[in-house]
Amino acid sequence: MLVFAYGVGAYVVFVLTALYAIGFVDNWIVSQTIDGAPGASGPMLQAALVNVLLFGIFALQHAFMGSARFRAAWARVLPVAVERSTHVLVSSLTLMLVFLRWRAIPLELWSLGAHPLGFLFEILSFAGWTLALIASAQIGHLPLFGLAQVIAQARGEELERPSFEVPFLYRWVRHPIYAGILLAVWCAPTMTLGRVLFAGLTTALVVFLARREEDELLLEHREYRTYRAHVPMLLPRAQGPIRRRRAG
């Protein structure tokens, strides 16, 4: 039951962090947003260096805890059931550190104001968050964020190794969760230098994580090589999705 409570607690922290992320990126409701308070400013170079350092800490922690080497070391000393929950918890807390200590660089590159195109960008940003949520549900939201593992542990069961399937969104792109996040961070009616920095760092991390995940999937599923050859990584092709439910 302690394992179960830990996993649920980690998931709650993740949900709160995800909600804060939406407010942070879209300059909405939360106290600290990507562009800071109106009129706030400071030395741009210093702010940029601090932001890169903060994001770099998060990127290194997230990448390290998601590596096969870390998971193998964890399995030798601590319960495997809480490995994913711990990854989710630590990553959420580190990302919150980025949000709370982020220094705004409000220099505007463009501002659409009340223009219809600005409204469209707002819709696309929220559509990106929605896409990421739906995509996570299609491949198993509970195991992705550690809940399925702790539930199985509480019941004295073992999770079955997932088979290789291609849900609807994954017929368009191989990483719709990442695609949704990128859509959310890049679509903005007001584009500041700080947002460009955050979006650029996010893009670099997403591409790195996607490529590493694919290296692991190639070893786990022989069908993945064929799937990768037919489906783009992040940007859908004009001809539409692949016409199959199951790879291979």
Describe the structure.
With 248 residues, this protein is mainly alpha-helical. It has one domain (2-230). Helices cover 63% and strands 3% of the residues. It is built from 10 helices and 2 strands; from the N terminus they run H-H-H-H-E-H-H-H-H-E-H-H. The chain has a two-stranded antiparallel ribbon. Helix 1 (2-25) runs parallel beside helix 4, helix 1 (2-25) runs antiparallel to helix 7 and helix 2 runs antiparallel to helix 4. The model has no long low-confidence stretch (mean pLDDT 89).
Q: Mind summarizing the main beta sheet?
A: 2 strands, antiparallel
Number of helices: 10
Tell me the helix content: 55-70%
Spatial arrangement of strands, main beta sheet: 1-2
String of helices and strands: HHHHEHHHHEHH
What structural class do you assign from the helix and strand content? mainly alpha
Count of structural domains: 1
Note the gap between the termini.
Answer: 40 Å
Radius of gyration over C-alpha positions, nearest whole angstrom: 19 Å
Q: Spans of 5+ residues with little confidence (pLDDT < 50)?
A: none
The average pLDDT score comes to 89
Number of strands: 2
- The amount of beta strand, in percent, is under 5%
Molecular shape: globular
List keywords for this structure.
two-stranded antiparallel ribbon, 10 helices, mainly alpha, 3% strand, 248 residues
